[in-house]
């Protein structure tokens, strides 16, 4: 089975992103052949800083390897290193309508927030469809906010197949389980993020151990003293889920272990578990960031594999669309 996902080089390297993203990418390697594309070409559709983009891209790549992507088994690469992505987007724009692009909720939301809306913001889902379709992808692990874009990719694939002949596999999404969401430690009604108003409520993967301990010890808990996962205990429930992410245990196992112990020892143990979870990740990340040559070598290898995997699909697209081939 072939699995493809694209990740934007945004700066979010926190526990929530680890739980819902990094850890899942690494786990998907057990399900099939994984292509992970850092979608740098997608990052230029809204205002951005070029120096920033370069930094964030390299940071994300280092984090993907540090959290368990295996360069032997999987293909991790930059979108801009494989020309087929830009070419596929142009070809597919011929079978996508402006009407359907305008209906995308993300386009509506983002374009309302800006005075000047780039053409790329509108055509972004066409690039994304190409990303997925070039690789004969069966499954796409993806956030809930991307459902509509994946649906469009499926429509575009079917339309192309009907018009030009069977070319693309029609992909299916893999969506994160409900509840696999890590909340802010200070405001557990809100998802953990790096852009929130409570920096103390966000654990960064690269935080120093003592910072992680401090943040977890000062996490808000609820009234009572039972370590129990319940809707009226959002703070404690979140800490239990964090413990599950860190140790791989079930919620019931964590509840049973802290039965009658109160919040104090529990918080201490959650902190230790998270420190141990991120210790090797941080070490590997720093090692890779300290060796730009190694990172470039890994990326060159990924790009080579991605070029080889996408070339036949792109060639078939050109051929079926009636282009004279060189
Ligand atoms: N649009 C996706 C996001 O913002 C990123 C993305 C680009 C992607 N191309 C993709 C995701 C292909 C999955 C498959 O998160």
Helix-strand layout with pairing:
Elements lengths: L1 E6 L7 H14 L4 E6 L11 H17 L8 E4 L5 H9 L5 H5 L2 H8 L6 H15 L5 E3 L5 H18 L7 E3 L34 H9 L16 H14 L3 H7 L5 H27 L2 H29 L6
Parallel strand pairs: 1-2, 2-3, 4-5
Model description:
The protein is mostly helical and 326 residues long. The protein is 53% helix and 7% strand. It folds into 2 domains: 207 residues, Rossmann fold; 88 residues, Tyrosyl-Transfer RNA Synthetase, CATH 1.10.240.10. It contains 12 helices and 5 strands. Strand 2, helix 2 and strand 3 form a beta-alpha-beta unit. The longest helix is centred in the C-terminal third of the chain and has 29 residues. The two termini are 32 Å apart. The site of tryptophan has 14 residues, from strand 1 and helix 6.
CATH class of the largest domain: Alpha Beta
Q: Distance N terminus to C terminus? A: 32 Å
Largest beta-sheet characterization: 3 strands, parallel
Helical residue percent band:
40-55%
Beta-strand content: 5-15%
Q: How many β strands by DSSP?
A: 5
Q: What is the CA-based Rg, rounded?
A: 22 Å
Q: Whole-number average pLDDT?
A: 95
Question: What is the helix/strand order?
Answer: EHEHEHHHHEHEHHHHH
Bound compounds, each kind once, are: tryptophan
Tell me the number of helical segments per DSSP (H or I, 4 or more residues long).
Answer: 12
CATH topology of the largest domain: Rossmann fold
* SSE class: mainly alpha
Number of domains: 2
Second-tier CATH architecture of the largest domain: 3-Layer(aba) Sandwich
Question: Globular, elongated, flat, extended or rod-shaped: what is the shape?
Answer: elongated
Spatial arrangement of strands, main beta sheet: 1-2-3
């Amino acid at each position: 089975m072939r699995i493809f996902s694209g990740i934007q080089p945004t700066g979010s390297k926190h526990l929530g992103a680890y739980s819902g993203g990094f850890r899942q990418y690494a786990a998907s390697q057990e399900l099939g052949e994984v292509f992970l594309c850092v979608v740098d070409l997608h990052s230029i559709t809204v205002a951005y800083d070029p120096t920033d983009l370069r930094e964030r891209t390299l940071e994300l790549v280092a984090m993907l390897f540090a959290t368990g992507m295996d360069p032997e088994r999987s293909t991790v690469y930059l979108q801009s290193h494989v020309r087929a992505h830009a070419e596929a987007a142009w070809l597919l724009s011929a079978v996508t309508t402006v009407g359907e692009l305008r209906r995308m909720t993300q386009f509506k939301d983002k374009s309302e927030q800006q005075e000047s809306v780039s053409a790329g913001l509108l055509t972004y889902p066409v690039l994304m469809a190409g990303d997925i379709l070039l690789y004969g992808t069966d499954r796409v692990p993806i956030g809930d906010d991307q459902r509509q874009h994946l649906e469009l990719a499926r429509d575009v694939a079917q339309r192309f197949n009907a018009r030009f002949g069977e070319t693309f596999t029609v992909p299916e999404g893999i969506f994160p389980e409900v509840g696999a969401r890590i909340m802010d430690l200070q405001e557990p009604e809100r998802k953990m993020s790096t852009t929130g108003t409570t920096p103390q409520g966000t654990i960064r993967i690269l935080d120093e151990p003592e910072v992680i301990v401090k943040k977890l010890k000062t996490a808000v808990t609820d009234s009572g003293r039972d370590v129990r996962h319940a809707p009226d205990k959002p703070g404690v429930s979140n800490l239990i889920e964090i413990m599950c992410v860190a140790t791989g245990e079930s919620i019931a196992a964590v509840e049973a272990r802290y039965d009658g112990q109160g919040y104090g020892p529990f918080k201490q143990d959650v902190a230790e578990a998270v420190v141990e979870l991120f210790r090797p990740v941080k070490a590997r990340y720093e090692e890779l960031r300290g060796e730009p040559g190694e990172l470039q070598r890994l990326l060159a290898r990924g790009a080579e594999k991605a070029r080889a995997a996408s070339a036949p699909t792109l060639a078939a697209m050109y051929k079926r669309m009636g282009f004279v081939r060189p």
